[in-house]
């Protein structure tokens, strides 16, 4: 598993992700792997992903599906308001999303 996590870290650093983001991504990958009994992600398919997402309950189910399907970061997802969700068009509107820096 450490080879995989080193590869993830290196890729994130090449793309200039923040160290905090790197730590969170590695933590989620570890959780995902342990959830699936130490199976390498390349050996997993859609069924394992569905199992992970469907094992979540209540608000965590919605959050997990939004994070996976939209690419939102956790804080962005938690800050969503009902008025940002358009169920007719099946869209989300995110203000001040990824990459917005304040100086």
Draw up the topology in text.
Elements: H1 2-14, H2 19-35, H3 46-54, H4 59-70, H5 74-78, E1 85-86, E2 91-92
Antiparallel strand pairs: 1-2
Helix pairs in contact: 1-2
Give the structure's gist in a few sentences.
With 103 residues, this protein is mostly helical. The chain contains 5 helices and 2 strands, in the order αααααββ. The radius of gyration is 16 Å and the shape is globular.
Distinctive features:
two-stranded antiparallel sheet, globular, mainly alpha, about 100 residues, 2 strands, DNA polymerase, domain 1
Number of strands: 2
Strand content: under 5%
- Overall outline: globular
Identify the CATH homologous superfamily: Tyrosine recombinase, N-terminal domain
Give the class from helix and strand content and strand pairing: mainly alpha
**Count of structural domains:** 1
CATH structural class: Mainly Alpha
> What's the helix-strand series?
HHHHHEE
Rounded to the nearest angstrom, the radius of gyration is 16 Å
End-to-end Cα distance: 38 Å
CATH architecture: Orthogonal Bundle
Average pLDDT = 80
The number of distinct helices, counting runs of at least 4 residues, comes to 5
Low-confidence stretches: none
The largest β sheet comes out as:
2 strands, antiparallel
Which fold name fills CATH's third level, the topology? DNA polymerase, domain 1
Physical arrangement of strands within the biggest beta sheet: 1-2
Share of helical residues: 40-55%
Oligomer: single chain
């Amino acid at each position: 598993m450490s080879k995989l996590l080193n590869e993830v870290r290196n890729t994130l650093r090449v793309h200039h992700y923040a160290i905090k983001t790197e730590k969170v991504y590695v933590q989620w990958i570890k959780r995902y792997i342990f959830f699936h009994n130490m199976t390498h992600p390349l050996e997993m398919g859609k069924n394992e992903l569905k199992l992970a997402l469907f094992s979540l309950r209540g608000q965590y189910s919605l959050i997990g599906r939004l994070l996976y399907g939209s690419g939102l970061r956790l804080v962005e997802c938690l800050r969503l308001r009902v008025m940002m969700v358009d169920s007719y068009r099946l869209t989300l509107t995110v203000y001040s999303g990824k990459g917005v820096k304040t100086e």
